[in-house]
Amino acid sequence: MNNIYQNYQNPFILAVLIVAALLVIQIIVRWWREQQYSLKGKTVLITGGSRGLGLVMARQLVQKGARLAICARDTSELEKARIDLQQRGGEVLAVPCDVTDELEVKQMMRFVSDRFGQIDVLINNAGTIQVGPMQEMTLDDYEEAIKIHFWAPLYTTLAVLPMMRQRREGRIVNISSIGGKVSVPHLLPYSASKFALVGLSEGMHSELAKDGIVVTTVCPGLMRTGSPYNAFFKGKHRQEYAWFSISDSLPLLSMSAESAAKQIIAAFRRGDAEVTLSLPAQIGEKFHALFPGFTSVLLGWVNRFLPEADGIGSDRVSGKESQSSISPSVLTSLSDQAAQQNNQFFQENSKMS
């Protein structure tokens, strides 16, 4: 007993015990908050739900008893995803829709409402990635990224808000990126548009809370979804594809799409305002917040090692058309496997991820 009492008298041991107790309490509270929101019978709409992260989230939501509406631009890709989800026991509506077109979004919302009655959860997941030096990026690249990452989530949100406000309940999930917190070289249109989505999403969380609507901003780091196959590459496109696809596949830098989807679903069930996924992304976000100038200097040095402008110039090709002797290879095996599993090979021309 004396030894135990003496341990409690030791300030260091006492501090460790207090921190451990607080962590345990936090875990219990997070688990309890998550359990309070059941997805059984809820209607979830996922944009860009036909492949990649969107499809992986849809699979997990089906397992939790949710009714699903998924949309993307390509009908064949959507049909394959619908069959996949129905074979897992899901009730699924697949709606072809270009979410950058406000009229198509409104029409899609009517289809979903006619089928399911209401939309309980909106997940804005559709996206595009353009990779290459700033010199090769055109105004069209920036406009495309802004349309998909800013205007599209705004269109879908404005379409579901009247129903959610009337019920004083609803969840909106905006899939941004660590690129919306830290601007990475050779991804300028992507990062700029994801920064815009973070600002929109954080503001909506503050303003819609009084209406009973929870908005969750998600900032993933690198994920093994297989997305490099459908990203667009400029300049020396084979070299650009090589560094991007290898980074996207390395276990210590990237996380699996399944793990990311699980954490995203848990976050919006808890009603979290924001979640950053993967340890490297969390470290990068905090380092940038503390040392923004130094972070920019470091990324400037990183940029020196990336491919120079040239090659195909401002023209762009998909990842499938940019393969080389080192990509695909053993270095990209995890991402290649994810692409096979998550419908990334199905359509050459679709932009929705």
Plain-language structure description:
Helix 4 links the parallel strand 2 (67-72) and strand 3. It is globular and about 55 Å long. Mean pLDDT is 92; it is low at 346-353. With 353 residues, the chain is of the alpha/beta class. It has a single domain, classed as Rossmann fold, CATH 3.40.50. The protein has helices at residues 2-9, 11-35, 52-63, 75-87, 102-116, 139-167, 188-208, 237-247, 257-270, 279-290, 292-304, 333-341, and strands at 43-47, 67-72, 92-96, 121-124, 130-131, 170-175, 213-220, 223-224, 232-233, 255-256, 274-277, 317-318. It contains 12 helices and 12 strands.
List the helices and strands and how they pair.
Layout: H1 2-9, H2 11-35, E1 43-47, H3 52-63, E2 67-72, H4 75-87, E3 92-96, H5 102-116, E4 121-124, E5 130-131, H6 139-167, E6 170-175, H7 188-208, E7 213-220, E8 223-224, E9 232-233, H8 237-247, E10 255-256, H9 257-270, E11 274-277, H10 279-290, H11 292-304, E12 317-318, H12 333-341
Parallel strand pairs: 1-2, 1-4, 2-3, 4-6, 5-9, 6-7, 7-11, 8-10
Antiparallel strand pairs: 9-12
Helix pairs in contact: 2-9, 3-9, 5-6, 6-7, 10-11
Family: Belongs to the short-chain dehydrogenases/reductases (SDR) family.
Keywords: Membrane, Oxidoreductase, Transmembrane, Transmembrane helix
Protein name: NAD(P)-dependent oxidoreductase
Shape: globular
- Which consecutive residue ranges, at least 5 long each, have pLDDT under 50? 346-353
Provide the CATH topology.
Rossmann fold
> How many helical stretches?
12
Number of domains: 1
Quote the average pLDDT: 92
The number of strands is 12
Q: What spatial order of strands do you see in the largest sheet?
A: 3-2-1-4-6-7-11
CATH architect. name = 3-Layer(aba) Sandwich
- CATH superfamily, by name, is NAD(P)-binding Rossmann-like Domain
Largest beta-sheet details: 7 strands, parallel
**N- to C-terminal distance:** 60 Å
CATH class: Alpha Beta
Rg (CA only): 21 Å
Task: Please estimate the helix content.
Answer: 40-55%
Give the percentage of residues in beta strands. 5-15%
